[in-house]
Write a structure and sequence with these properties.
Number of strands: 13
Radius of gyration: 18 Å
Number of domains: 1
CATH superfamily: Glycoside hydrolase/deacetylase
Number of helices: 8
């Protein structure tokens, strides 16, 4: 049996319910879990590493607040609570550029706790999985994440950022060419880049994903809800690709779509 984890990034206090419902109703109706990497307290001026305003903010409508906790969007929180197919992953804290890429360990711990508290104050359970904005970690922040979460989901692991005590495990993982590994109780999962992206050819996107799934026991598929909306308008051909994926996954007898928590044994 092969396993697939679908991870959608950047749900935040400014995310409209209708956007998620439009994208993921075919998954929810087929009991295919959707893992939402959720920003606990989004910075309303969050920037990409290149300096551009993050596109997940296109519905901010000039919000004067510098940061908005997820709990202020009561409609979104209620919607997520009413649909058990959604699973919340902690996605940084404010989603500032390189947020966890340079923090010392103590500062990283404080920010992690602040983010977790924001999610729990909104009514969500304590998250068991963490994804860093832009996949950036410092050694100290990775140690703090591993102390708090059962799963770390990222694009890659760099020797220069992996804690020194993890190097033997990291070397063994490289020797085996394994995308996923473990340090203590923490699962460390890498993904193959965003195979579901508006920047990839749509005519071949599904076939590329199917080819990648072949022969791999576990694949984390990452996408971003805001990529399906250009300037707030739905990109229907791209949405159709996502729904085609739901159709495909629902009928595969040797593929099971799971949540991060199921993989970690209930984390």
């Amino acid at each position: 049996m092969r396993h697939v984890i679908l991870r959608d990034d950047d749900t935040n206090a400014l995310t409209p319910v209708d956007c998620l419902e439009r994208l993921y109703r075919p998954f929810l109706d087929r009991a295919l879990p959707v893992n939402l990497a959720t920003i606990p307290e989004v910075a309303t001026d969050a920037r990409t590493p290149e300096g551009a305003l993050e596109e997940f903010l296109f519905f901010r409508n000039g919000s004067p607040a510098p940061r908005l906790p997820i709990g202020v969007n009561t409609k979104l929180v209620r919607y997520l609570g009413e649909n058990s197919g959604y699973h919340i992953v902690q996605h940084g804290c404010h989603h500032e550029a390189g947020e966890f890429g340079a923090l010392e360990r103590a500062a990283a711990g404080r920010r992690l706790e602040h983010g977790t508290a924001a999610l729990m104050q909104a009514g969500f359970s304590r998250p068991g999985t963490f994804a860093a904005p832009h996949d950036k970690f410092s050694r100290g922040s990775m140690l703090e994440v591993a102390a708090r979460f059962r799963v770390i989901s990222t694009g890659w692991f760099e020797l220069g950022r992996v804690p020194y005590s993890w190097w033997p495990n990291y070397a063994l993982r490289k020797l085996r060419r394994a995308p996923h590994w473990r340090r203590g109780r923490t699962l460390l999962l890498s993904h193959p880049g965003c195979l579901l992206s508006r920047n990839r050819p749509r005519q071949t996107m599904i076939n590329t994903i199917i080819d990648h799934l072949q022969g791999r026991p576990l694949t984390v598929l990452v996408t971003h809800w805001w990529e399906y909306y250009r300037n707030g308008e739905p990109d229907e051909p791209f949405i159709a690709v996502l729904h085609e994926l739901a159709d495909y996954l629902a009928v595969q007898k040797d593929i099971k779509v799971i949540s991060f928590g199921q993989l970690a044994g209930g984390a």
